[in-house]
Amino acid sequence: MTTNKLSNDQIKNEGQSTRLFYDPNSLSSFNGYRIVHTHFDLNVDFDSNILYGYVQLDVKPLSNELCDCSSTIKTENKEIPNNYGNQVVLDSRHLNIKKVLLKSNDIEKSLSFQVDIERESLTIEMNDESKDSTISIIIHYSTSNTKCSALQWLTKEQTADRQYPYMFSQCQAIHARSLYPCQDTPGVKSTFTAKVKCPKPLTVLMSGLQTNYDENTNTFYFEQQQAIPSYLIAIAVGKLASYDLSPRIRVWTESSMIRQCQYEFEHAEQFLTAAEQLLGEYQWKRYDFLVLPPSFPYGGMENPCMNFLTPTLLAGDRSLISTIVHEMTHSWTGNLVTNENWEHFWLNEGFTSFIEAKILGNLDKANGKEVRRFHAAQQWQDLQTAVATWGAAHPYTCLVYRLNNTDPDDAYSSVQYYKGAAFLWYLEQDVIGSESDFDEFLRSYIIKFGRKILNTDDFIQYFQSYFPQAPSVDWQSWLYTPGMPPITHDFSTKLEEQCNQLATQLSPITKEQMNMLNAKQVAYLLNVLLNHKSTINRDYIEQLDTNCDMSKYSNCEICFRWYQLCIRVKFEKYLDNIFEFLKVIGRMKFVKPLYAEFKSSWPELIPRVQTFFDEHKKYMNPITVKQIEIRLNSQN
Ligand SMILES: [Zn+2]
What we know:
Elements: H1 8-14, E1 33-45, E2 50-61, E3 87-91, E4 96-104, E5 107-110, E6 113-116, E7 121-125, E8 135-142, E9 151-154, E10 166-169, E11 190-197, E12 203-206, E13 209-214, E14 219-228, E15 235-238, E16 241-246, E17 249-253, H2 258-264, H3 268-279, E18 288-291, E19 300-301, E20 306-309, H4 322-329, E21 337-339, H5 346-363, H6 368-390, H7 408-411, H8 415-432, H9 435-449, E22 452-454, H10 456-466, H11 475-480, H12 494-504, H13 511-515, H14 519-531, H15 538-548, H16 556-568, H17 575-584, H18 588-601, H19 606-616, H20 622-633
Parallel strand pairs: 1-11, 17-18, 18-20, 21-22
Antiparallel strand pairs: 1-2, 2-8, 3-7, 4-5, 4-8, 6-7, 9-10, 10-15, 11-14, 12-15, 13-14, 16-17, 19-20
Helix pairs in contact: 3-4, 3-5, 4-5, 5-6, 5-8, 6-8, 6-14, 12-14, 14-16, 16-18, 18-20
């Protein structure tokens, strides 16, 4: 197929023009002033569970003529949104703002400001300060000890080693505003430096490279030279151990988990090399990662130079490495090429999920095609579950959705991951019909949009200009229509057929049959059972347990699906295990469906579930708490 490749010179000539954009989830004045560098000077206080100190924002005024606005920008009355003239408006959630200073030539001058708690904003009056050059604003503040949604503070009893307290952040999607005053939109990228002091003998990690350490004061210094959005700012503090997996990869965790991590992620360098072969050179110098306590709300978070991962990946058999491959892949799609607002989240997650399956295939020299297809089949299955959970007509099952007055966390599900991956699969296999041409397109897309932001229209335009002779694509159905995709792919492989046969056979599944399956297949099989509601009853589940002893599985991907089946048929035997699981684990992929299953399948148990939740929520991550409350309070 004929392609229009961009030469490197052409890309350089396009320059880094600052573009104006739209973001329904930030009130900040990013179309008037743009943060270009952030410096943190913070202290970590475990007595009161706060961070305090100051942040310096270097802010560049934008000229109003700069307007290559995207089509999604709202231009009612021809006014550019998020431009408040002489005010710098920042997103600020429950921060205690002490003073705001303007710094120029080492002279600091107070600026007047107002905090709006309801609108979660901090407005700084710039009066007649010059709009000619970059200005530095210093804000002294502290975080809230009860309402900071970005941070979770753990007592020493809540950690694996039980010796010291622990703290970690999760800023995606819009929690950075509770960590520091900022332009909390993925559309603004800033470099950062940081100086963070914490009690001995704890270690601070951040989403940048460590540049220095002062042993006397236990102060850690960091730098991130690549401009990153606020949602990629990350911090963790704890008593941590580390192990070098390769010259550029180091794993961090509590010391009692370090051996397990060493084993589970031993091949991390191979994964990173495979990603580079597909996507081009790794641009962040180091790839380190932290394996967190089990209350971490996600499978992983792609914080640059320091990915965060859930310990539920430590299956002991390296069967759950796809999550680390996923987070690594974000080093290109997401962290270099970034969605301009959360309505285009699929550009981050759909691309990453699609490429993750490709890399897993490329890693398996003997059976790569089969491995990639089976991974894509698992993603398709998870997409079916997610669409069924929302309902096929729900607007959040569109690949691109509207987020006016909606927290992106409330619209979050696997849809944008796996419908996005299915869309790219369709473009590669059905529209272009050549994997190697599509791989080349991916590399060119990363060069074209790397270090920039984009929206769905930019992607469509680029695709069409790159493949000018490609058959037409029904963009409307794929991108803006709810429900399952317009085209159902055939992902069938031997691995999948084996599972489907067992799920549909009339006789009970035997121990021997189950032992033929690998861990991913067992999880897949349980998913098939979950999706075939009519055949599943209590007798079936009890028989499966008698034959196959389901209590022997400790792999969380298997456990949570088995527990969901048990709740569905009211099988009491595993209730204690389920509550124990919910007590320890905060990963929303697992706990959201379990609470939702209690609500829909076992209403008599809801008072007990509610009491359990009320007792334990103080130990849970604030992001997880909010999502469970939504499920427990829902009417259906
Ligand atoms: Zn992701």
